[in-house]
Amino acid sequence: MLTFLRNHVLSGDRPHSRLLGAALLAIVLGLAFAPFLTSGARPLNTAATICIYIVLVASYDLLLGYTGIVSFAHTMFFGIGAYGVGLGLSSADPGWSGALLGLVAALLLALALALIIGLFALRVRAIFYSMITLAVASSFAVLASQLSDFTGGEDGKTFSVPAQLQAGFRLIDGVLFGRAIDGKLLTYYLVFFGCLLLFLFLLRLVNSPFGRVLQAIRENEFRAEALGYRTMLYRIWANCLAALVAVLAGALMALWLRYVGPKTMLGFEVMTDILLIVVIGGMGTMYGAVVGATLFIIAQNYLKALMAEGASSLAGISVLAEALHPDRWMLWLGVLFVLSIYFFPSGIVGRLRGQPTP
Asked: pTM above 0.85?
C-alpha cells in the first residue's frame, strides 16, 4: 500500500523528511474532514480557500520554481476561470451546462492568451518578460472593471449555482456525524477533490521527463538547448499548462464564493499572496505550495483575531496592547514573513528536506 502511494499517487516524489510527511498528512486529513471537525462558516471557508490556493500556488511554482519563469499574469488566468464560470451561471436558471460552457470558454481564452504571451514575450529575458506579463494582467483587470454591463464592474457579479450545490439541497435526510449533507457540503468536497486531482496532476507532471527538462532549463537553458531540447517550446508548454490549471482553480473559487469581482480574482494582492506563499513554502518543491498555503491562509484569517485577544489580555500594559492592536495585523504578518525567509531561506519544505540555500 505504501509502495503504491509513493510510486503512483505521489509519482515517486517522497517527502524525504518524517516531519514533512507528518505535516502533509495532517494537512490533507484536516482538509478532508474539515466539515466534520469544525463548525461555522469561517473555518470551512478557510479550508476551501487553502485547497484552492494550494493548486493556484503549485501551478505558479511550475513556472517559477521548475522553469525559472517570473510571470505576473497568473492572476489573470485565475480571474478568467472565475469569470467564465460566474458569467456562465448568471442566467435566470443556472445549471451545469452554463457552468461547463463558461469553463470551456475560459479555458480556450486562457490557452490563446498563454500561447500569445509565450510566443512573443518568452523571447525576451528576465525583467522584460515580467513587465510584459504585468502590463497584460493590469490591462485585463482594467477591462474587467470597465465592462460593467457584462462583468459587473468594480462591484463584481453575484450569481446562483446549480440546485445540487445550493444550501437548501439535501442529499439525504438527517445528519451524518453531526453534519447535514447539504449543497454547501457537496460544494466543499467538489472543491477538495477537484484541487486534489489537479495537485496530483502537477506532481506527476514535474516528476515526468517533461518536468526534468523544465528543471534543466531552469538550471542552464543554454546547456539544455545544446543537448537538443527545444527550450522555447518547453517554456511555452509550461506557460500554457500553468495557465489552464490556474483557470480551473479560479472556476472552483467562483463556485465556492458564488461571486466574481476584479479585486477578489484579478487584484495584484492575489499575485502578491501567491509569490509570498511560493517563497515561504519553498520554490521548486510542489509540497511547498501545500505547507505555505496552509500557513499563510490560516495566518491571514486568524492572526487579526488572535491579536485582538492578545491585546485585550494585555490591556494593563499599554505598550504591548498597542503593539498587538488588530489594525497592525499586516505589520506582524510581514514580520512573520521576514522571519520565515531568515530562518528558512530555501523555504520551509526545502529546509525540512535539507536542500541547500539558493
From this structure: yes
